[in-house]
Specification:
heterodimer; A: 159 residues; mainly alpha; B: 346 residues; alpha/beta; 7-stranded mixed sheet; 6-stranded mixed sheet
């Protein structure tokens, strides 16, 4: 058990921390995250990426794919485009501009995988590329799978 | 007996050691910045022909030290010690550069305060009569820090506007005894050793806010210990607080009764042009204070534009492990007073 002296000290420290954090927040006002702008840009860019995806999908349908089969080649094409843009050093610039708009679509997933693979290629194919490729995308796969399992369970039990 | 200690945290040198020569090497973004023409070498890209960024960073430190010794016309075997540190795990830039340079070596870590820590310790070695020539060097690199502390560089994560840009650069200084160099030189007169401060900031992008309390504490300590005021200096520089941290320091100092309005600036605010370069709040990293101080500031001292300066290097002592575990960011600041003067007498 901490002594009452120590408790008082902690309390005083906490008060000082709160006081300081208020100052820091106030002085940061010129550098605040522009939430509204970010939401708007994410909505527009994310939407545009989906429009491009739809266009590619229509193209594949035009080439003779059935509508329900056009999804896979569309996703593959988007992933390829995002991978190339990551390699060319364009996707991180887009990411800074669009935030979630370029991170949430499948292209963002491709960027997470390719950027990690590129970053760690100097540590070799096994310990570098192989081990680190899913360092960023891994959580998406894990929690995507967990979510799918839970949703599947809910469907099996309730519906 | 600690008869060279002044007050609680400041060392006062008996024969203020001479900062004889300095050398700076930077990356392309720093070269294009407002201080571009004050650096000795500007690399064309982030790799400079090396096979990795880490190799480039240690090459940069090696180049800085070699250039320093060339400028001072001093052979490697005349150097007693090299003190160096950087941001990378196990100090790989300093250690590997020292392997190739073969100078007796002490690795030091103070995150971005390493430049001042090294300079202060070098002055202690010289004033303590343990060495005639000591090299103090430090480096940082945008690519190596990003991948160690944050994300792969090509990952499209959105950085907040208050984040900072790690400077690609290395600075090295040569400290020597004033007996050998009695002329007009910049001399290290005081070294204030900081305490680790933590005001509970947890956002690893918010380095300016995290480090500002440490900077303000060390500056106040320095003024109390030396019985000086901000007005006694032509320029007071903090290491890499950038625009957010700088404003906080001004406010914290004002609350403690010190007016920092006239002669205070931050190296992170000087090295880039935030209006034209994509650097967010400004520069950071060990290299930031090193290349600014050892570049433009030292030039201005030699030209007589600055006589007495105070440099407070600021370091955020976090690691990716600590912030992933939800810990706040402990920070430190050390300060050195440098004065342009004749002989040892001050």
């Amino acid at each position: 058990m901490p002594s009452s002296k120590e408790k008082n000290r902690t309390k005083r420290e906490q008060a000082l921390n709160q006081e300081y954090q208020a100052i820091a927040k106030r002085q940061q006002k010129d550098h605040k995250i522009p939430v509204l702008r970010n939401l708007l840009v994410a909505f527009i860019v994310g939407g545009l990426i989906c429009v491009v995806g739809q266009a590619i999908s229509n193209l594949f349908i035009g080439l003779g794919f059935k509508p329900e089969e056009a999804g896979n080649p569309t996703v593959a094409t988007l992933i390829l485009v995002a991978a190339v843009l990551t390699g060319l050093g364009v996707y991180d610039v887009l990411g800074q501009f669009a935030g979630a708009g370029s991170a949430v679509p499948v292209t963002g997933f491709a960027n997470a995988v390719v950027s990690a693979a590129l970053e760690f290629k100097r540590e070799g194919l096994i310990l570098g590329v192989g081990a680190k490729m899913f360092a960023l995308a891994g959580p998406v796969i894990v929690y995507g799978t967990v979510t799918a399992f839970v949703v599947g369970l809910v469907k099996a039990l309730l519906l | 007996m600690a008869n060279k200690k002044l007050g609680a945290q400041t060392l006062q040198f008996n024969r203020p050691p001479v900062l004889l020569e300095a050398a700076t090497v930077v990356g392309p973004l720093e070269g294009q910045g407002p201080l571009g023409d004050t650096f000795d070498v500007i690399y064309p890209d982030q790799l400079n022909g090396q096979k990795s960024w880490e190799a480039c960073e240690r090459g940069m430190m090696k180049d800085a030290v070699k250039l320093l010794l060339d400028k001072a016309k001093l052979s490697v075997d005349r150097v007693d010690f090299m003190l160096a540190g950087d941001l990378l795990n196990q100090l790989i830039s300093g250690n590997f550069a020292a392997r190739d340079l073969a100078i007796p070596f002490l690795g030091i870590y103070g995150a971005c305060s390493t430049m001042v820590e090294g300079l202060g310790l070098a002055a202690m070695l010289v004033d303590g009569d343990y060495a005639d020539y000591v090299v103090a060097a430090t480096s940082s690199h945008y690519g190596t820090s990003e991948r160690q502390y944050r994300f792969p560089t090509e990952y499209g994560a959105q950085r907040p506007p208050y984040s900072q840009t790690t400077v690609t650069g290395s600075g090295a200084g040569l400290v020597t005894d004033s007996t050998y160099h009695p002329g007009r030189y910049p001399r290290v007169t005081h070294f204030t050793v900081g305490k680790v401060m933590d005001r509970g900031i947890k956002d690893p992008y918010d380095m300016g806010s995290a480090m500002a309390p440490a900077a303000a504490d060390t500056l106040q300590r320095h003024f109390v210990d030396t019985d000086r005021t901000p007005a006694d200096y032509d320029l007071i520089l903090t290491g890499d607080l950038a625009s957010v941290g700088k404003k906080i320091v001004i406010e914290l100092m004002a609350l403690a009764g010190y007016d920092m309005g006239q002669n205070y600036d931050d190296c992170g605010c000087r090295i880039y042009n935030p209006d034209k370069q994509p650097v967010f709040a400004g520069g950071s990293g060990c290299g930031c204070s090193a290349v600014v101080t050892y570049g433009s500031i030292l030039h201005q001292m030699r030209e007589g534009k600055l006589k007495r300066i105070l440099v407070a290097g600021t370091g955020a002592l976090l690691s990716p492990t600590t912030y992933q575990q939800g810990e706040s960011i402990p920070c430190i600041a050390h300060a050195v007073a440098i004065e342009m003067s004749e002989k040892g007498a001050l």
